Amino acid sequence: MRLKSSLVATAAALATIITPLIASPAAAATPGTLETVSANAYYGQMGIGWRIRPFRLDPINIVATDRATDGYIVGIRLITYGELGKKVWKMRTVPSGQTTGSWTTYLDAGYVEYALFQVCKISASNGAIASCEESRTMYNPFDDSSV
User: Fold this and answer.
1) Any residues with CB less than 8 A from the CB of 95 and at least 6 apart, and which?
2) Whole-angstrom distance, CA of residue 96 vs CA of residue 124
3) DSSP annotation of 75
4) Sign of the C-alpha dihedral, residues 52, 50, 93, 79?
5) Three-class SS state of 32
6) H-helix or E-strand containing 114?
7) Which of 29, 50, 57, 93 could join 107 in a cystine, given CB atoms 3.0 to 4.6 angstroms apart?
């Protein structure tokens, strides 16, 4: 009986040591936000994983769809607001001849308070942006006063 009690106590002690190692921040789910922009001619979606220590947007899942054969291509770009001020990131475009483009990336941009994205119609002949529609704002789920 004494052996059984000490085995149970040893197992409980090991569980308290091993559990924090298994349930590390890397194993925890990353808080995320997801928004879409949709119109007759295009569709865009962006999902962002927000990380701290270090501050990082990871992953960023991007989808853009060109729904019309109208002489325009569709582009999508991220805009962040944070410790770097307002930052407009690189435009990604749906390759000519395709209807959908998708990308997965990350961003080391310091603390980002909020982000949004634009889906743009771009002239296929000269590359000029004809119009853009913005997504709703995606706010950082972390309270910056606690980090």
Assistant:
1) 101
2) 8
3) E
4) negative
5) strand
6) strand 112-123
7) 57
Confidence bin at 124 (pLDDT 50/70/90) = very high
14: number of Cβ within 10 Å: 10
**In sequence order, what are the beta bridge partners of 80?**
87, 115
Tell me how far apart the alpha carbons of residues 128 and 141 are, in angstroms, rounded to a whole number.
35
Helices (H), the chain: 2-22
* Residue 47 three-state SS: strand
- What pLDDT, on a 0 to 100 scale, did the predictor assign at position 146? 55
Short-list 135, 107, 146, 144, CA closest to 38:
135
Residue pair 116/88 in contact (Cβ under 8 Å)? The answer is: no
- The pTM (predicted TM-score) of the whole model is 0.77
Contact residues for 65 (Cβ-Cβ < 8 A; gap 6+): 42, 43, 44, 74, 94, 99, 100, 101
Q: In the structure encoding, which two tokens stand for residue 78, read together?
A: 């991220």
Residues in the chain: 147
Residue 94, both tokens: 């749906």
126 DSSP assignment: T
